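Priority: low. Protein: Bifunctional antitoxin/transcriptional repressor RelB. Input follows.
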Amino acid sequence: MATLSLRMRDDLKAKAQQLASKQGVSLNSYINATLAATIAQTETLAMMGDRLSNVDREQLHARVMKFMSKTQSGTEPTLAEIEQAISGQ
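Result:
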């Protein structure tokens, strides 16, 4: 594992420490998780951009809208219902 010295503004560090504290993690863990999430998001967007580069955007939009028109509003499942569905009971 690499070690990195990082310079940042005092106010930014204080805000990051507050967020880390709210999540119950160290500043180091918070920065690592935030950086990992940012990298994953960037890589995902790049991959999706590559996969959609040759797609007809209007046709894709029409397919998405058709799918969305079939969704139904309703109540969200409870935690117990979600756990039951996951366990297969």
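The CA atoms of residues 40 and 46 lie 10 Å apart. Residues 27-51 form the longest helix (25 residues).
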